[in-house]
Amino acid sequence: MLRSHHPHLVQKTDITIATVFPCYKPSSPFQTHSLLSSNVNNYNELLRNLSSLHNFSILDIPITGDHLGRDGTHLDSIHISYLSNTIQEYVHDLMNRIWPLKEIKAYLTYKKIQYNRLPEIWKQKLCIQFTNPVHREHAEKTLTLNDFDENSYSEWCSQEH
Q1: Domain containing 125: what range?
Q2: Which of 9, 10, 40, 11 is nearest to 23 (CA)?
Q3: CB burial class (10 A; 0-12, 13-18, 19+) of residue 144?
Q4: Phi and psi of 19, rounded to 5°?
Q5: pLDDT digit string (tens) for 53-93?
Q6: How many domains does the chain have?
Q7: What is the C-alpha to C-alpha distance for residues 73 and 59, in angstroms, rounded to an integer?
Q8: Closest C-alpha among 15, 67, 17, 3 to residue 46
Q9: C-alpha torsion 7→13→17→19, nearest 10
Q10: 83 and 12 assigned to the same domain
Q11: pTM across the whole model
């Protein structure tokens, strides 16, 4: 359904759905921790099956009952950073996959940018090393802040070079 309204979302990683973490607050259909856990595990398993069938990714959030607050439903405030760090790591890993180093080198050559060294991307930072200040100035004038985003990469891949 989502892809029919947004046809540009073609890659598996274009759509990501997070797994559900536990809830230990009893309700009428799920009166024990065992029933609650079984329901969450069943949901997450069905989600994994759907992801294979419909080609979307899963963000497995490793929250356990130990991370929950006293109410058994919400994260304890001391574990909020654990959740946000998990999400940030996932996004970071996705971003690192957007522009492979080989493609960056080809793109720089296409833009006629001469560099000395191009180390691996680390912490979402591309560091281009120059020995010649004229080459560095040319790169600064030629490249924009958006040159290495996902849209630019899609555009780059669709062109012949």
Answers
A1: 99-158
A2: 40
A3: exposed
A4: -70, 165
A5: 998 999 999 999 999 999 999 999 999 998 888 888 887 77
A6: 2
A7: 20
A8: 17
A9: 160
A10: yes
A11: 0.59
